[in-house]
Structures are given as structure tokens and as C-alpha cells.
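Help needed: design a sequence for this.
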């Protein structure tokens, strides 16, 4: 009797998730649905996540890999119990049922792909407006990391004395994610990387059985990515909690992952099983495509990047200075967050950051999470209050007037800068159409009426013909008016690979070059050639409306992924780890990072001795 009971229990609890021939819908399907209005997602899906080790004695660690952020996110949502399952019995949670735990409590989803730009507590916690995070005044709603992790993020929250077990869990999570030194920091002041760790910590505090991480490496610098990979490996091996992570193809697959689900953009699973079998099958073909390089056509042997640049292409000659920082040092009390070093400038040792950006330059600001990249950028955009008091010139003028010199107004800056970032995405009005969003580049404020001419109308029309993705609306808004300075702060992070490549090509070459429509054909060398940029028909007939970046414009890029860095970028500055007092490093690239990939690790992210 006991043996039979144990066998039945083992069978009942062997899977934490079991999906058998299930088809999923966003809304309950009905015969009255118009064709295409409620398509199935992941039809006839089969998936098992064992709670115990496999028959060979090794645990299974799963990852879903797809070039489509929608596919990755939707698959994890299906695992979490979202979307309608037909038949209803196709998706079950045997182990959770045995433990009397509800799936929505036992399974935690933390998204950095579809939810990029969202903060630890949402916009309401990060501040009511973009520059709130830089202000020194503390409000009652400026909750700390400790408040966030313990759930005290509401006004007049109920007092709760944590139990000894809750305290032990929190202490363990703080050490595992290196958050102890940040406990009293307002969440509004966290960097993107620190926010990432805080959100994962919040999920771990609730002790889930399964943690679904959507894009855990997106937006992290290489050093932090390596640490995050090590952290996730330890979590996975401890199975406390069990993990399923989503990855972009360019992220690579961590060594500790044992099983993969490969999904297409059309929300279908094309492969599923042990990683060794799937990766080995594709490795040779993938390497051949990489070695082919990217060429303009079958006859032209010039190797091009995905956005149309040769392996060795020099930088444009610099013009007048658009941004000048002459000894910038940003401090909060006794803490220096930018400029805690002494540079040699003009033959003299001078404190602070000395740096400039000129017309024609395409420059990247790189550095570890928390190194001051966002702070440096906020000084340029004038979102930081200290812009008014620090030695900074924007377009040759200071923010405040001086004797014989007129200051530059915020409206002048907005007209001369185009800016796209996750923070702008979080605060931008959500009720505007894509067209109206792009047109706001000619307005004093997003909700103000834009001042459009016939040329502006034609540019917007041209962009809408080329792009339909809502996630690119702010990117297009940043470039459509051809401002003196274009700022792209993680602007293409999380965008699907093909859309990203198309956007990068459009940034540099406008309507002059296109990616052939048949480049999605797989499996041959001709497929690789079909991906190369070609001169567009619009360019051939002389009807180009948008030319791309001009030599009179400057480009400033912040990115932690070399795949998101435009091929035109040549100059770079890499800020040091915070608190180390080391100098920032600067350099020049000989060509696009795509065709010079070693430069990313060996030059830009080179470790100081």
C-alpha cells in the first residue's frame, strides 16, 4: 500500500509545469472572431519542466531563445499561467497542486525585455518627471531600496515587524545580489543595473518555486553580465528557485543552461531539447554565415556591416564643439558620482571631467553600470539641475547668462537635440499615435502642437512607410528633424534583430540603402548575401526625403551591447568603476564594431591593470 502511494505521489509531483498539446490565445476564442483578430500563440505546444533531476541524474536548466522579444515574453507568460489554454486541461502544475501553492504566487515573472524602462516601483516611484531623480530634496514618496524589498512603498503603510525567517531570507538575498550597500539609497537614484538587481531581489524575497527572467542580460555591461551569469548559475544549481530565462541570440547561451526552446517571430516553437544537440546542429552553418561577411551584392567583394560600413572606414573630420565639459564634477554630499579624478588637459593636471563633442563625431559613452553614464547624459540634456552651476557649454553657450554672453534656453536645447531613451519612454504620453509622436519633434513639448512644414510632413510620411513598430516611434522622433545632436540611450535595446538592423541602416543612410526583403531565407550562403545593404530604388530615382545623419550632426550613443551600437560610431569614452578614482579612457575605432568585434572587449572594455 505504501509503495503504491509513493509511486502515485512521484508521478503527481514530477513536473512543476506540464503542457501537453496545448494551444493558447490572448482572448477566449469564439466562432464570431473575425479572421486574424485573435490568432493562436504557440499552437499544439508540448513542454515539461521536471521538479526533480532527469533520468541521467542531472538537473534540467531551460532557456527560451528567439530573435523576437514578443516570442520570448509570450512563451514565459504561457509558463506563468497567462493566456487562454485550449483545452483547459493541457496546462497543469502538478507539483504546485501537491504543495497547495497557487501558480500566480509560486511563479514569479521579472521582465526586462517587454518591460524595459520600467523601474523597481514603476514611474510613480522613480519620480513624476524626468529630472526628479537628480533632485536633492527628499519626499515621503522617495522610498529606499529597503522599503521596496520589504514592501513598504505605500503612504501610511501598515507596520509589520519582520519575523526571524523573513529577516534571514532578506539578508541572504542582499548578499547574493550585492545590494547591502544600497539599502538606504532612494530607488529613484538607482542605475539601470542596480535596478535590475533590485527587481530580481524583490522576486526572490517572496521565495517562488519558479523564477521566469525575461532578458536578464539586456542593458548590462560585460562585467555585470558575467557576474549576473554566475549569480543565475548559482541560483539554478541550488534550485532555489528554479529558473527559466529568455535570451536573445546575441546574448549567447550560458554554459549552465542544459535545455533550449527555440522560437520564431511567428510564435511557433521550431526546436526544443538538450542544448548540446541543438547547438551542435547549428554551429557549423552559423560559422559559415559569419565568415562570409556582409557584402553589397553577389559581385561586389567589399565587406559591409549590417548598416553599410566597410571594415576600415575613417571618422568624419570634427567641426565646431557642440558640448564642452571643462572640469565637471558631480557630487551629492560627500559622494562623487562623476569626475572623481584628475585629467591632463592643456599640459596641466586638472580635476574633473574634461571632454567635448563636435559636429561630425559619432561618439559612444560606455562604462560599468553606475559609473555615471546617465548622469553625464543628463548634464548634456540639461535634465540635471547641476547643469546650471557646472562648467558646461552647450552649443557654445552656458545655461545661465554671463556678462556679455547670453544663456541658452531649454526650448533652444530641445530644438537642437533629438533624444531617445527608456526613461523618455516611461514618461512620454501614451495616448499619442505613432505619427503624432514623431511629429512632436517639431513641438516645444510632446502635447504641444507641432510646427510642421511640407518638408516635415514628407519626412514623417517616409518614415511611416519604412517602419510600423510602435517601439521605434521615439527613435524616429529623435532623428526625423535632423537635430544638431542625436542622443540614443539604449534606444534599440530589446528591439527584434531585423527591426534593429533596419533602424541602424536608416540612421546612417536614410532612404538611400535598404535590406533586401528576402533576407529571412535560411540555410545557405545566398541567404547570407541577401542580408547585405543595397542601394534603394528611391535613391536610384532621386526621390530621397530623409538622408540619414549628415556631417553637420553629432551622434551620442549609450549601449551595453555591441549589437546595438551603430556602425558609424568611431569615438568613445569609457567611464571607470564608481569610487575607484581612475581616469576615463578614450579611443577611436577603425571601423564598425560588427566587423571588428575584438575591439569591444580589447579596447572599449579593456580592464585596467
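Sure. Designed sequence:
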Amino acid at each position: 500500500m505504501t509503495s503504491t502511494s509513493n509511486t502515485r505521489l512521484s508521478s503527481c509531483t514530477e513536473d512543476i509545469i506540464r503542457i501537453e498539446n496545448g494551444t493558447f490565445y490572448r482572448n477566449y476564442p469564439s466562432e464570431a472572431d473575425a479572421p486574424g483578430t485573435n490568432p493562436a500563440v504557440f499552437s499544439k505546444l508540448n513542454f515539461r519542466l521536471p521538479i526533480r533531476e532527469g533520468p541521467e541524474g542531472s538537473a534540467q536548466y531551460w532557456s527560451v531563445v528567439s530573435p523576437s522579444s514578443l516570442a520570448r515574453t509570450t512563451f514565459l507568460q504561457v509558463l506563468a499561467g497567462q493566456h487562454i489554454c485550449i483545452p483547459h486541461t493541457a496546462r497543469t502544475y502538478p507539483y504546485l497542486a501537491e504543495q497547495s501553492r497557487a501558480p500566480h504566487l509560486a511563479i514569479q515573472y521579472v521582465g526586462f525585455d517587454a518591460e524595459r524602462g520600467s523601474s523597481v516601483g514603476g514611474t510613480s516611484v522613480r519620480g513624476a518627471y524626468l529630472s526628479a531623480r537628480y533632485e536633492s530634496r527628499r519626499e515621503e514618496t522617495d522610498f529606499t531600496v529597503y522599503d521596496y524589498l520589504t514592501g513598504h512603498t505605500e503612504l501610511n503603510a501598515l507596520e509589520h515587524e519582520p519575523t526571524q525567517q523573513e529577516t534571514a531570507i532578506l539578508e541572504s538575498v542582499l548578499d547574493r545580489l550585492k545590494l547591502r550597500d544600497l539599502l538606504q539609497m532612494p530607488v529613484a537614484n538607482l542605475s539601470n543595473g542596480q535596478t535590475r538587481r533590485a527587481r530580481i531581489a524583490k522576486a526572490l524575497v517572496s521565495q517562488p518555486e519558479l523564477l521566469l527572467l525575461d532578458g536578464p542580460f539586456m542593458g548590462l555591461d560585460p562585467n555585470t553580465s558575467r557576474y549576473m551569469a554566475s549569480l543565475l548559475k548559482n541560483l539554478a544549481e541550488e534550485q532555489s528557485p528554479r529558473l527559466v530565462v529568455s535570451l536573445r541570440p546575441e546574448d549567447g547561451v550560458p554554459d549552465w543552461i542544459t535545455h533550449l526552446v527555440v522560437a520564431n517571430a511567428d510564435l511557433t516553437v521550431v526546436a526544443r531539447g538538450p542544448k548540446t544537440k541543438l547547438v551542435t546542429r547549428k554551429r557549423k552553418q552559423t560559422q559559415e554565415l559569419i565568415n562570409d561577411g556582409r557584402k553589397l551584392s553577389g559581385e561586389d567583394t567589399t565587406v559591409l556591416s549590417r548598416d553599410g560600413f566597410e571594415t576600415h572606414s575613417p571618422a568624419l573630420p570634427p567641426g565646431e564643439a557642440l558640448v564642452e565639459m571643462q572640469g565637471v564634477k558631480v557630487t551629492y554630499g560627500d559622494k562623487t558620482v562623476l569626475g572623481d579624478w584628475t585629467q591632463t588637459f592643456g599640459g596641466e593636471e586638472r580635476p574633473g571631467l574634461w571632454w567635448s563633442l563636435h559636429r561630425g563625431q559619432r561618439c559612444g559613452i560606455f562604462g560599468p553600470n553606475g559609473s555615471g553614464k546617465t548622469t553625464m547624459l543628463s548634464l548634456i540634456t540639461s535634465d540635471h539641475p547641476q547643469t546650471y552651476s557646472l562648467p558646461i557649454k552647450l552649443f557654445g553657450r552656458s545655461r545661465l547668462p554671463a556678462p556679455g554672453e547670453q544663456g541658452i534656453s531649454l526650448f533652444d536645447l530641445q530644438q537642437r537635440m533629438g533624444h531617445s531613451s527608456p526613461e523618455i519612454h516611461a514618461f512620454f504620453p501614451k495616448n499619442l499615435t505613432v505619427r503624432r509622436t514623431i511629429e512632436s519633434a517639431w513641438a516645444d513639448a510632446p502635447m504641444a502642437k507641432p510646427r510642421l512644414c511640407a518638408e516635415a510632413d514628407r519626412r514623417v510620411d517616409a518614415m511611416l512607410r519604412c517602419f510600423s513598430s510602435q517601439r521605434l516611434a521615439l527613435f524616429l522622433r529623435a532623428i526625423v528633424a535632423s537635430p544638431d545632436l542625436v542622443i540614443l540611450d539604449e534606444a534599440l535595446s530589446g528591439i527584434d534583430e531585423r527591426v534593429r538592423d533596419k533602424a541602424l541602416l536608416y540612421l546612417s543612410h536614410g532612404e538611400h540603402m535598404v535590406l533586401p526583403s528576402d533576407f529571412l531565407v535560411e540555410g545557405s550562403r545566398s541567404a547570407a548575401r541577401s542580408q547585405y545593404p543595397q542601394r534603394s530604388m528611391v535613391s536610384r530615382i532621386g526621390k530621397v526625403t530623409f538622408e540619414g545623419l549628415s556631417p553637420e550632426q553629432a551622434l551620442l550613443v549609450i549601449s551595453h551591447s555591441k549589437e546595438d551600437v551603430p556602425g558609424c560610431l568611431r569615438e568613445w569614452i569609457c567611464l571607470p568603476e564608481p569610487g575607484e578614482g581612475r581616469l576615463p579612457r578614450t579611443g577611436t575605432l577603425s571601423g564598425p564594431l560588427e566587423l571588428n568585434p575584438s575591439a569591444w572587449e580589447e579596447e572599449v572594455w579593456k580592464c585596467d591593470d
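The radius of gyration is 26 Å.
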